[in-house]
Specification:
heterodimer, A: about 300 residues, mainly alpha, MetI-like fold, two-stranded antiparallel ribbon, 4 strands, about 70% helix, globular, B: about 425 residues, alpha/beta, D-Maltodextrin-Binding Protein, domain 2, 2 domains, 17 helices
């Protein structure tokens, strides 16, 4: 009787423990710490519980909300540029790379992927130099071909700064959608494509009708990665435009807004409570976006088994 | 042979071990600072001078980048890992550290009576009773110019009034060899600090206007504060092509490479410019609105040194602070870092001609400090940061001087209610 009872399977807990402990310690606890901090406020050097008042201030008090909604709008635009430019270009590059007639494939693949592994600091600095009106190569090249008039100090003008920085970011990260889509394209079995050819579907039509539906799940994953990455973005703006997201806050995104508020900037002292409120808002925005994707889009994507 | 080498190594290591034992008795003080440009001067001139006079105390100068200093320092202090001596930013940033108990009062440090009340004001509690940092240096605003450029376009005397200044800018622009004004708006603070706060005191009458603003008797929409914005807007045509994307280091390089004629400056540039510029430089104070007006200069208390309340070596730290308050230090520091002017009352002799020129204005003009620093940048929105944006927008032409001033005043009104 006693022999029949199964032993407690300790090894499951033991094997799970390292990942669970590390993940809890460095991800889950700080997350709840941040959420908790956002419910307090420093009044006379004491932390006082204020409920959701920080969030109310952030969303309705004009001094906070103007900056918050401005950062949010900029962030949405930043994301749109990535979705409209980075991902289509990534797909196009992947399609070109997977073309059997292409030579030097490994070279192109590497060259396009290299910026992704560069540090933000290098990317930001290099592009600041390339676009600099004083020392930049852009105004010089344009001058050589007689088009100096087309040059503007793009990073310094409110209308163009955000788009310019977003395009720099696209330049840096276009390798990631390219690689993921490239892998997806390679995994399409030859039989499927041959069958399509037998039915007379070739060239562009083959891409639109056969390949694209098969790589849709990958595109979905890329979209959600782009979304999360963009709403957490900070480094590139900080390096190229400073913590103020200049000029006149036109490149201020949630990340830089959070940084300024949490750590303080120049004479502005840091406010960890408001900073946490902003960080929590970023978390909620991303949560909503990811949930929307998981429940509304992913469940409807059709998958094909080969 | 090998054996000998081995033996030598053994001897050497035991000698080294005993040497490090001897060092273990020494106290090491760490200075937190944002003056990373000065690291070399601290290590080669200032620290050796102190260590020579005070055997047994070693000093390390740990500097962070200026923009990261406040955040990094706050984090270190909270975690208890900050250095023994803390370089203090003026006004609220340091006051906040003191209020949180991170800094000790320094009133009993020998030599504190060498400083005037004005010099100490930036590192005192609001009631002026407790001082928590020993004043080290101030910076003075003005304009540095390229003497060769002035000669080439035939400007004989430095401009004394605003009209002369504009006429000179025009001359430089017509000549075309030089960019008349080396300033950009990308980093925003240049426009506010080297622009608005540089020329402003002449218009708002220095301390008079600054104190009236704090007392609530003046508004930023008053002509005295709007006028300097208008003057700034007039600078735009004389700034370099694409100045909207010109950052602070760009402006510095543009000037030191000899491509620009006039640099709206803070005196802290002097040591860097002396090293880099290959031409003769001169300086002039902000041009007066009208000939015969009183001149005012911005003589901004810039940094001081305080003691970490949790230091393990309070005695050694105090010794260092006493030295910082002495005339010896003032002279050493003022000459090692030309452009940082000692705040002590004692007579200090400076050797650098450019620094001397700046310092001479203390005699001929009335000193004041940056209008946004004391009290007015305590709330949200923060006047200093707002002023950066305002000044940059005015030069970029995205806001009129009146709009910019109104926005600043509205921001201030939302949290600052003097006399209530």
């Amino acid at each position: 009787m006693a022999v029949a009872r199964r032993q407690t399977r300790w090894h499951i807990a033991v094997f799970l423990a390292p990942a669970l402990i590390v993940y809890t310690a460095i991800m889950i606890l700080p997350l709840f710490g941040t959420l908790q901090l956002s419910l307090f406020r420093n009044i006379d050097q004491k932390q006082v519980f204020v409920g959701l008042d920080n969030f109310r201030a952030l969303l309705t008090d004009p001094h906070w909300s103007t900056a918050f909604w401005n950062a949010f709008r900029n962030n949405v635009w930043f994301f749109c540029i990535h979705m409209l430019v980075q991902n289509p270009i990534g797909i196009l590059l992947a399609a070109l790379l997977s073309s059997p007639k292409l030579r030097f494939r490994a070279f192109y693949r590497t060259a396009i992927f290299v910026p992704t592994i560069l540090s933000f600091v290098i990317v930001g600095f290099v592009w600041k130099l390339i676009l600099s009106p004083l020392w930049g190569i852009t105004p010089m090249l344009l001058k050589e071909i007689g088009l100096r008039g087309l040059f503007h100090p793009w990073l310094g003008m409110g209308d163009t700064a955000l788009t310019t920085v977003a395009l720099v970011s696209v330049w840096q990260f276009v390798g990631i959608p390219m690689m993921l889509i490239y892998a997806a394209l390679l995994s399409i079995p030859d039989e499927v494509l041959e069958a399509a050819e037998c039915d007379g579907i070739t060239g562009m039509a083959q891409f639109w009708k056969i390949k694209l539906p098969l790589i849709l799940p990958s595109i979905g994953i890329i979209s959600i990665l782009t979304f999360v990455g963009n709403f957490n973005a900070f480094d590139l703006i900080y390096v190229s435009q400073g913590a103020l997201g200049g000029p006149n806050f036109s490149t201020d995104i949630l990340g830089t807004f959070l940084y300024r508020t949490f750590f303080g900037f120049q004479l502005q002292l840091g406010d960890p409570n408001m900073g946490s409120a902003i960080a929590s808002m970023m978390f909620f925005i991303i949560l909503v976006g990811v949930c929307f994707y998981l429940f509304a889009i992913q469940t409807r994507l059709r998958r094909y088994q080969f | 042979m090998t054996r000998n080498t081995l033996r030598l190594m053994l001897v050497a290591s035991s000698v080294l071990a005993s040497a490090s034992l001897a060092y273990a008795d020494d106290v090491t003080l760490t200075i937190e600072s944002w003056r990373n440009d000065d690291t070399q001067i601290w290590q080669s001139q200032i620290i050796p001078a102190f260590e020579k006079a005070n055997p047994g105390i070693k000093v390390t100068f740990a500097a962070a980048a200026p923009t990261e200093y406040n955040a990094a320092l706050n984090a270190k202090l909270a975690a208890g890992s900050a250095g023994d001596l803390i370089t203090c930013r003026p006004f609220d940033a340091a006051l906040e550290l003191f209020k949180k108990g991170y800094l000790t009062p320094v009133d009993d440090i020998k030599g504190m009576n060498n400083f005037s009340d004005v010099a100490k004001a930036a590192w005192q509690t609001d009631d002026g009773k407790t001082t928590f940092c020993v004043p080290m240096a101030s910076v003075i605003h003005g304009f540095i110019y390229n003497k060769d450029a002035f000669e080439k376009v035939g400007i004989k005397d430095v401009p004394k009034t605003q009209d002369e200044f504009m006429a000179d800018l025009k001359k430089l622009k017509d000549d075309g060899t030089y960019v008349p004004l080396a300033m950009g708006t990308k980093d925003q603070w240049e426009a506010a600090t080297m622009g608005w706060e540089n020329i402003g005191p002449d218009y708002w009458k220095g301390e008079e206007g600054r104190k009236a603003l704090i007392a609530g008797k003046a508004k930023l929409t008053d002509p005295g504060f709007v006028e300097p914005f208008k003057v700034l807007a007039g600078w735009a045509p004389y700034m370099g092509d694409g100045f909207q994307a010109q950052a602070y280091p760009d402006s510095q390089n543009l000037f030191t490479l000899g491509r620009a004629a006039i640099y709206p400056a803070g005196s802290w540039e002097i040591s860097v410019f002396n090293k880099q510029a290959q031409f003769k430089m001169g300086a002039f104070p902000p041009p007066l609105p009208k000939a015969g007006d009183t001149c005012y200069i911005s003589d901004q208390p810039d940094h001081a040194l305080g003691m970490n309340a949790k230091t393990k070596h309070p005695e050694a730290a105090k010794k260092f602070l006493e030295w910082v308050a002495s005339k010896d230090f003032a002279e050493l520091y003022g000459n090692a870092l030309p452009g940082f002017f000692p705040l002590t009352n004692e007579k200090v002799e400076l050797k650098d001609p450019l620094a001397k020129e700046f310092l001479s204005w203390r005699e001929s003009c009335k000193p004041t400090m940056r209008v946004t620093y004391q009290i007015l940048s305590r709330g949200t929105p923060n006047l200093e940061n707002e002023a950066w944006g305002a000044a940059a927008n005015v030069i970029n032409g995205t806001e009129t001087p009146e709009q910019a001033a109104k926005k600043l005043q509205d921001g201030l009104d939302s949290w600052y209610h003097p006399g209530k």
